[in-house]
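User: Please predict the structure of the protein below. I'd like the answer in C-alpha coordinate form so I can feed it into my own downstream comparison script.

Assistant: Understood. Taking the following sequence of 384 residues as input:
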Amino acid sequence: MKKIQSLRDSLMSWYKANHRDLPWRKATNPYHIWVSEVMLQQTQVTTVLPYYRRFLKRFPRLERLARADLQDVLKVWEGLGYYARARNLHRAAGFILNHHQGIIPDRWDDFRKLPGVGDYIAAAVLSIAFEKPYAVVDGNVKRVLARLLLEEAPLNRSTSIKIFKEAADRLLTPRDPGTFNQALMELGAMVCKPQQPLCSACPIQGLCLAYETGRVDEYPKKLKKSPAPQFNIAVGVVFKNSSVLITRRKPEGLLGGLWEFPGGKIQNHEKAKDACIREIKEETSLSVGVDTYLGRIKHAYTHFKIIMDVFCCSYHCGKVKLNGPVDHRWIKLENLDDYPFPKANHKFFPLLKKFAATARKGDITKSGQAGNDLRLEIDNLAKS
Protein backbone atom coordinates (compact mmCIF):
# COMPACT_ATOMS: atom_id res chain seq x y z
CA MET A 1 0.00 0.00 0.00
CA LYS A 2 2.90 2.35 0.70
CA LYS A 3 4.22 1.85 -2.83
CA ILE A 4 0.79 2.59 -4.31
CA GLN A 5 0.52 5.78 -2.27
CA SER A 6 4.04 6.75 -3.31
CA LEU A 7 3.07 6.22 -6.96
CA ARG A 8 -0.05 8.34 -6.53
CA ASP A 9 1.81 11.17 -4.85
CA SER A 10 4.67 11.19 -7.38
CA LEU A 11 2.35 11.01 -10.37
CA MET A 12 0.01 13.75 -9.13
CA SER A 13 2.91 16.09 -8.30
CA TRP A 14 4.45 15.49 -11.72
CA TYR A 15 1.15 16.12 -13.49
CA LYS A 16 0.44 19.39 -11.70
CA ALA A 17 3.87 20.69 -12.72
CA ASN A 18 4.11 19.29 -16.24
CA HIS A 19 0.69 18.73 -17.83
CA ARG A 20 -0.13 20.29 -21.17
CA ASP A 21 -2.29 23.40 -21.18
CA LEU A 22 -5.36 22.05 -23.00
CA PRO A 23 -8.72 23.87 -23.10
CA TRP A 24 -10.82 20.97 -21.80
CA ARG A 25 -8.63 20.74 -18.70
CA LYS A 26 -9.89 24.15 -17.72
CA ALA A 27 -13.49 23.11 -18.28
CA THR A 28 -15.89 22.55 -15.41
CA ASN A 29 -18.98 22.07 -17.60
CA PRO A 30 -19.64 18.30 -17.85
CA TYR A 31 -20.91 18.77 -21.41
CA HIS A 32 -17.62 20.34 -22.53
CA ILE A 33 -15.62 17.59 -20.84
CA TRP A 34 -17.81 14.97 -22.51
CA VAL A 35 -17.32 16.51 -25.96
CA SER A 36 -13.55 16.51 -25.49
CA GLU A 37 -13.44 12.87 -24.41
CA VAL A 38 -15.57 11.77 -27.34
CA MET A 39 -13.33 13.62 -29.77
CA LEU A 40 -10.15 12.28 -28.20
CA GLN A 41 -11.16 8.67 -28.79
CA GLN A 42 -8.70 7.30 -31.38
CA THR A 43 -7.71 10.84 -32.36
CA GLN A 44 -4.59 12.83 -31.54
CA VAL A 45 -4.76 15.94 -29.36
CA THR A 46 -3.34 18.22 -32.06
CA THR A 47 -6.09 17.12 -34.44
CA VAL A 48 -8.83 17.55 -31.85
CA LEU A 49 -7.93 21.07 -30.69
CA PRO A 50 -9.46 23.11 -33.58
CA TYR A 51 -12.49 20.80 -33.79
CA TYR A 52 -13.17 21.12 -30.06
CA ARG A 53 -13.15 24.91 -30.24
CA ARG A 54 -15.24 25.00 -33.41
CA PHE A 55 -17.78 22.49 -32.12
CA LEU A 56 -18.38 24.33 -28.84
CA LYS A 57 -18.60 27.65 -30.65
CA ARG A 58 -21.37 26.20 -32.81
CA PHE A 59 -23.01 24.14 -30.03
CA PRO A 60 -21.98 25.80 -26.72
CA ARG A 61 -24.71 24.10 -24.70
CA LEU A 62 -26.13 20.59 -24.67
CA GLU A 63 -29.57 21.95 -25.52
CA ARG A 64 -28.22 23.61 -28.66
CA LEU A 65 -26.67 20.33 -29.79
CA ALA A 66 -29.81 18.36 -29.01
CA ARG A 67 -31.99 20.68 -31.10
CA ALA A 68 -29.55 20.91 -34.02
CA ASP A 69 -30.05 19.16 -37.35
CA LEU A 70 -27.78 16.12 -37.66
CA GLN A 71 -26.43 17.44 -40.97
CA ASP A 72 -25.21 20.58 -39.19
CA VAL A 73 -23.52 18.43 -36.55
CA LEU A 74 -21.81 16.25 -39.16
CA LYS A 75 -20.65 19.32 -41.05
CA VAL A 76 -18.90 20.73 -37.98
CA TRP A 77 -17.43 17.25 -37.33
CA GLU A 78 -16.35 16.86 -40.97
CA GLY A 79 -12.78 15.62 -41.30
CA LEU A 80 -12.44 14.40 -37.71
CA GLY A 81 -13.53 10.90 -38.69
CA TYR A 82 -15.33 8.15 -36.79
CA TYR A 83 -18.63 9.88 -37.49
CA ALA A 84 -20.62 7.51 -35.29
CA ARG A 85 -19.17 9.54 -32.41
CA ALA A 86 -20.95 12.66 -33.67
CA ARG A 87 -24.20 10.85 -34.39
CA ASN A 88 -24.23 9.22 -30.96
CA LEU A 89 -23.35 12.45 -29.17
CA HIS A 90 -26.23 14.16 -30.97
CA ARG A 91 -28.64 11.34 -30.04
CA ALA A 92 -27.44 11.28 -26.44
CA ALA A 93 -27.93 15.04 -26.11
CA GLY A 94 -31.51 14.65 -27.33
CA PHE A 95 -32.12 11.82 -24.87
CA ILE A 96 -30.78 13.87 -21.96
CA LEU A 97 -32.92 16.83 -22.96
CA ASN A 98 -36.05 14.68 -23.13
CA HIS A 99 -35.46 12.28 -20.23
CA HIS A 100 -33.08 14.05 -17.81
CA GLN A 101 -34.35 17.63 -18.06
CA GLY A 102 -31.19 18.58 -19.95
CA ILE A 103 -28.92 17.63 -17.04
CA ILE A 104 -26.11 15.15 -17.72
CA PRO A 105 -26.59 12.23 -15.30
CA ASP A 106 -23.80 11.62 -12.80
CA ARG A 107 -24.69 8.00 -11.97
CA TRP A 108 -22.82 5.22 -13.80
CA ASP A 109 -25.89 3.24 -14.86
CA ASP A 110 -27.69 6.29 -16.25
CA PHE A 111 -24.71 7.77 -18.08
CA ARG A 112 -23.45 4.41 -19.37
CA LYS A 113 -26.80 3.75 -21.10
CA LEU A 114 -26.51 6.84 -23.32
CA PRO A 115 -25.84 6.26 -27.05
CA GLY A 116 -22.13 5.91 -27.78
CA VAL A 117 -21.08 5.80 -24.12
CA GLY A 118 -18.82 2.86 -23.31
CA ASP A 119 -16.80 2.12 -20.20
CA TYR A 120 -13.98 4.49 -21.17
CA ILE A 121 -16.19 7.53 -21.83
CA ALA A 122 -18.27 6.85 -18.72
CA ALA A 123 -15.21 6.56 -16.47
CA ALA A 124 -13.52 9.62 -17.96
CA VAL A 125 -16.51 11.97 -17.80
CA LEU A 126 -17.79 10.81 -14.41
CA SER A 127 -14.35 11.00 -12.78
CA ILE A 128 -13.27 14.31 -14.32
CA ALA A 129 -16.60 16.15 -14.27
CA PHE A 130 -18.16 14.65 -11.12
CA GLU A 131 -15.17 13.27 -9.14
CA LYS A 132 -16.57 9.76 -9.21
CA PRO A 133 -14.01 6.99 -8.43
CA TYR A 134 -13.88 5.24 -11.81
CA ALA A 135 -10.53 4.32 -13.35
CA VAL A 136 -9.95 5.21 -16.99
CA VAL A 137 -8.26 2.64 -19.22
CA ASP A 138 -7.14 3.80 -22.67
CA GLY A 139 -4.15 2.90 -24.82
CA ASN A 140 -1.81 5.20 -22.92
CA VAL A 141 -2.87 3.79 -19.55
CA LYS A 142 -2.50 0.19 -20.72
CA ARG A 143 1.03 0.91 -21.95
CA VAL A 144 2.04 2.47 -18.63
CA LEU A 145 0.55 -0.41 -16.66
CA ALA A 146 2.14 -3.05 -18.88
CA ARG A 147 5.61 -1.61 -18.26
CA LEU A 148 5.00 -0.78 -14.64
CA LEU A 149 3.81 -4.29 -13.77
CA LEU A 150 5.50 -6.38 -16.50
CA GLU A 151 2.02 -7.36 -17.65
CA GLU A 152 2.12 -10.09 -20.30
CA ALA A 153 -1.47 -9.68 -21.51
CA PRO A 154 -1.46 -8.30 -25.10
CA LEU A 155 -2.86 -4.79 -25.37
CA ASN A 156 -4.93 -5.58 -28.43
CA ARG A 157 -6.59 -8.76 -27.14
CA SER A 158 -10.18 -8.06 -26.13
CA THR A 159 -10.02 -10.16 -22.97
CA SER A 160 -7.02 -8.18 -21.70
CA ILE A 161 -9.11 -5.14 -20.83
CA LYS A 162 -10.33 -6.82 -17.63
CA ILE A 163 -6.74 -7.34 -16.45
CA PHE A 164 -5.75 -3.71 -17.07
CA LYS A 165 -9.00 -2.43 -15.57
CA GLU A 166 -8.37 -4.31 -12.33
CA ALA A 167 -4.83 -2.91 -12.15
CA ALA A 168 -6.05 0.63 -12.81
CA ASP A 169 -8.75 0.26 -10.13
CA ARG A 170 -6.12 -0.71 -7.56
CA LEU A 171 -3.98 2.33 -8.33
CA LEU A 172 -6.80 4.90 -8.53
CA THR A 173 -6.88 7.41 -5.73
CA PRO A 174 -10.37 7.95 -4.29
CA ARG A 175 -9.49 11.58 -3.71
CA ASP A 176 -9.47 13.61 -6.95
CA PRO A 177 -9.81 10.56 -9.23
CA GLY A 178 -10.30 12.73 -12.32
CA THR A 179 -6.91 14.35 -11.96
CA PHE A 180 -5.27 10.99 -11.28
CA ASN A 181 -6.83 9.53 -14.44
CA GLN A 182 -5.61 12.47 -16.49
CA ALA A 183 -2.16 12.18 -14.94
CA LEU A 184 -1.85 8.52 -15.87
CA MET A 185 -3.01 9.21 -19.43
CA GLU A 186 -0.67 12.20 -19.69
CA LEU A 187 2.26 10.10 -18.52
CA GLY A 188 1.58 7.62 -21.30
CA ALA A 189 1.21 10.35 -23.91
CA MET A 190 4.22 12.47 -22.97
CA VAL A 191 6.74 10.19 -21.21
CA CYS A 192 5.91 6.49 -21.46
CA LYS A 193 5.66 6.67 -25.25
CA PRO A 194 5.32 3.65 -27.55
CA GLN A 195 8.75 4.30 -29.04
CA GLN A 196 11.75 5.76 -27.22
CA PRO A 197 10.06 6.37 -23.86
CA LEU A 198 11.58 9.13 -21.74
CA CYS A 199 12.34 6.96 -18.73
CA SER A 200 14.76 9.50 -17.26
CA ALA A 201 11.87 11.96 -16.91
CA CYS A 202 9.39 9.46 -15.48
CA PRO A 203 8.15 10.30 -11.96
CA ILE A 204 7.42 6.64 -11.17
CA GLN A 205 10.62 5.23 -12.65
CA GLY A 206 11.68 3.76 -9.30
CA LEU A 207 8.53 1.63 -9.18
CA CYS A 208 8.59 0.45 -12.80
CA LEU A 209 9.47 -3.23 -13.15
CA ALA A 210 10.26 -2.93 -16.86
CA TYR A 211 12.79 -0.16 -16.14
CA GLU A 212 14.24 -2.03 -13.18
CA THR A 213 14.81 -5.17 -15.27
CA GLY A 214 15.96 -3.35 -18.42
CA ARG A 215 13.01 -4.67 -20.45
CA VAL A 216 11.14 -1.48 -21.32
CA ASP A 217 11.42 -2.17 -25.06
CA GLU A 218 9.72 -5.56 -24.61
CA TYR A 219 6.49 -4.05 -23.29
CA PRO A 220 3.65 -3.72 -23.92
CA LYS A 221 2.93 -7.05 -25.60
CA LYS A 222 0.81 -7.02 -28.76
CA LEU A 223 -0.74 -9.65 -30.98
CA LYS A 224 0.37 -9.42 -34.59
CA LYS A 225 -2.34 -7.88 -36.75
CA SER A 226 -3.39 -9.22 -40.12
CA PRO A 227 -2.70 -6.85 -43.04
CA ALA A 228 -5.57 -4.45 -43.65
CA PRO A 229 -7.63 -5.46 -46.70
CA GLN A 230 -7.65 -3.16 -49.70
CA PHE A 231 -10.64 -2.41 -51.92
CA ASN A 232 -10.75 -0.85 -55.36
CA ILE A 233 -13.54 1.68 -55.77
CA ALA A 234 -14.93 3.48 -58.82
CA VAL A 235 -16.69 6.82 -58.27
CA GLY A 236 -18.48 9.05 -60.77
CA VAL A 237 -19.07 12.78 -60.69
CA VAL A 238 -22.24 12.97 -62.78
CA PHE A 239 -22.76 16.30 -64.55
CA LYS A 240 -26.20 17.37 -65.69
CA ASN A 241 -26.23 20.81 -67.23
CA SER A 242 -24.24 22.84 -64.69
CA SER A 243 -24.97 20.65 -61.66
CA VAL A 244 -23.49 17.46 -60.20
CA LEU A 245 -25.21 14.60 -58.41
CA ILE A 246 -24.46 13.79 -54.78
CA THR A 247 -26.07 11.10 -52.61
CA ARG A 248 -26.38 10.69 -48.86
CA ARG A 249 -25.41 7.51 -47.03
CA LYS A 250 -27.71 5.77 -44.59
CA PRO A 251 -27.56 7.34 -41.11
CA GLU A 252 -26.11 4.21 -39.52
CA GLY A 253 -22.83 2.43 -40.29
CA LEU A 254 -19.53 3.67 -41.69
CA LEU A 255 -19.66 7.36 -42.67
CA GLY A 256 -23.38 7.31 -41.90
CA GLY A 257 -25.27 10.46 -42.88
CA LEU A 258 -22.48 11.89 -45.02
CA TRP A 259 -22.80 12.89 -48.66
CA GLU A 260 -20.70 11.43 -51.47
CA PHE A 261 -20.53 10.87 -55.20
CA PRO A 262 -22.15 7.60 -56.32
CA GLY A 263 -19.92 4.60 -56.86
CA GLY A 264 -18.79 1.35 -55.34
CA LYS A 265 -16.47 -1.65 -55.44
CA ILE A 266 -14.90 -2.78 -58.69
CA GLN A 267 -15.64 -6.44 -59.33
CA ASN A 268 -13.05 -9.02 -60.33
CA HIS A 269 -11.87 -8.57 -63.93
CA GLU A 270 -14.02 -5.45 -64.26
CA LYS A 271 -12.62 -2.22 -65.63
CA ALA A 272 -12.91 0.78 -63.35
CA LYS A 273 -14.76 2.73 -66.04
CA ASP A 274 -17.36 -0.03 -66.44
CA ALA A 275 -17.73 -0.34 -62.68
CA CYS A 276 -18.42 3.38 -62.44
CA ILE A 277 -21.26 3.18 -65.00
CA ARG A 278 -22.68 0.03 -63.40
CA GLU A 279 -22.58 1.34 -59.83
CA ILE A 280 -24.26 4.62 -60.77
CA LYS A 281 -26.99 2.69 -62.57
CA GLU A 282 -27.51 0.36 -59.60
CA GLU A 283 -27.52 3.15 -56.99
CA THR A 284 -29.47 5.84 -58.84
CA SER A 285 -31.11 4.21 -61.91
CA LEU A 286 -29.41 6.81 -64.12
CA SER A 287 -27.70 6.02 -67.40
CA VAL A 288 -24.44 7.92 -67.73
CA GLY A 289 -21.39 8.03 -69.92
CA VAL A 290 -17.81 8.35 -68.72
CA ASP A 291 -16.15 11.36 -70.31
CA THR A 292 -12.92 11.83 -68.39
CA TYR A 293 -10.75 9.94 -65.95
CA LEU A 294 -10.08 12.43 -63.19
CA GLY A 295 -7.54 10.42 -61.23
CA ARG A 296 -6.80 8.01 -58.40
CA ILE A 297 -7.12 8.67 -54.68
CA LYS A 298 -5.75 6.46 -51.90
CA HIS A 299 -7.22 6.54 -48.43
CA ALA A 300 -6.82 4.45 -45.28
CA TYR A 301 -9.57 3.78 -42.78
CA THR A 302 -9.03 2.03 -39.45
CA HIS A 303 -9.51 -1.52 -40.68
CA PHE A 304 -9.15 -1.29 -44.46
CA LYS A 305 -7.75 0.77 -47.31
CA ILE A 306 -9.28 1.95 -50.56
CA ILE A 307 -7.98 2.91 -53.97
CA MET A 308 -10.56 5.16 -55.57
CA ASP A 309 -10.66 5.84 -59.32
CA VAL A 310 -12.67 8.98 -59.99
CA PHE A 311 -14.42 9.74 -63.28
CA CYS A 312 -16.26 12.72 -64.66
CA CYS A 313 -19.50 11.50 -66.23
CA SER A 314 -22.32 13.02 -68.26
CA TYR A 315 -26.00 12.34 -67.61
CA HIS A 316 -27.71 10.51 -70.47
CA CYS A 317 -31.20 9.62 -69.29
CA GLY A 318 -33.34 8.38 -66.43
CA LYS A 319 -34.89 9.63 -63.21
CA VAL A 320 -33.16 9.19 -59.87
CA LYS A 321 -34.45 6.17 -57.97
CA LEU A 322 -32.18 5.40 -55.05
CA ASN A 323 -31.00 1.93 -54.07
CA GLY A 324 -28.81 2.20 -50.98
CA PRO A 325 -28.46 5.96 -50.47
CA VAL A 326 -31.31 7.70 -48.65
CA ASP A 327 -31.24 11.09 -50.35
CA HIS A 328 -29.79 12.93 -53.34
CA ARG A 329 -29.18 16.46 -54.58
CA TRP A 330 -28.20 18.11 -57.82
CA ILE A 331 -25.88 20.89 -56.70
CA LYS A 332 -23.41 23.40 -58.09
CA LEU A 333 -19.74 22.55 -57.57
CA GLU A 334 -19.26 25.81 -55.73
CA ASN A 335 -21.75 24.56 -53.11
CA LEU A 336 -19.85 21.37 -52.22
CA ASP A 337 -18.62 22.94 -49.02
CA ASP A 338 -22.19 23.22 -47.74
CA TYR A 339 -22.42 19.45 -47.27
CA PRO A 340 -20.51 17.05 -45.00
CA PHE A 341 -18.39 14.66 -47.10
CA PRO A 342 -15.94 11.86 -46.23
CA LYS A 343 -12.28 12.80 -46.17
CA ALA A 344 -11.55 10.58 -49.18
CA ASN A 345 -13.86 12.75 -51.28
CA HIS A 346 -12.24 15.92 -50.00
CA LYS A 347 -8.92 14.75 -51.42
CA PHE A 348 -10.09 15.41 -54.96
CA PHE A 349 -12.45 18.37 -54.39
CA PRO A 350 -9.96 21.15 -55.23
CA LEU A 351 -8.83 19.25 -58.30
CA LEU A 352 -12.39 18.58 -59.42
CA LYS A 353 -13.23 22.27 -59.19
CA LYS A 354 -10.10 23.21 -61.09
CA PHE A 355 -10.80 20.57 -63.71
CA ALA A 356 -14.37 21.76 -64.23
CA ALA A 357 -13.17 25.36 -64.50
CA THR A 358 -11.10 24.43 -67.57
CA ALA A 359 -14.13 23.17 -69.47
CA ARG A 360 -16.11 25.44 -71.73
CA LYS A 361 -19.60 26.19 -70.46
CA GLY A 362 -19.47 23.23 -68.11
CA ASP A 363 -18.72 20.74 -70.92
CA ILE A 364 -16.29 18.32 -69.24
CA THR A 365 -15.79 16.16 -72.30
CA LYS A 366 -12.89 18.29 -73.48
CA SER A 367 -9.98 18.93 -71.23
CA GLY A 368 -6.80 18.51 -73.25
CA GLN A 369 -3.53 19.24 -71.52
CA ALA A 370 -5.34 20.66 -68.51
CA GLY A 371 -6.60 17.17 -67.74
CA ASN A 372 -3.13 15.68 -68.01
CA ASP A 373 -1.70 18.35 -65.73
CA LEU A 374 -4.51 17.82 -63.28
CA ARG A 375 -4.00 14.07 -63.16
CA LEU A 376 -0.38 14.68 -62.25
CA GLU A 377 -1.57 16.86 -59.37
CA ILE A 378 -4.01 14.17 -58.25
CA ASP A 379 -1.33 11.48 -58.36
CA ASN A 380 0.93 13.65 -56.22
CA LEU A 381 -1.90 14.31 -53.79
CA ALA A 382 -2.78 10.64 -53.51
CA LYS A 383 0.81 9.82 -52.60
CA SER A 384 0.95 12.45 -49.86
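That's the full C-alpha coordinate string. The longest helix spans residues 2-18.
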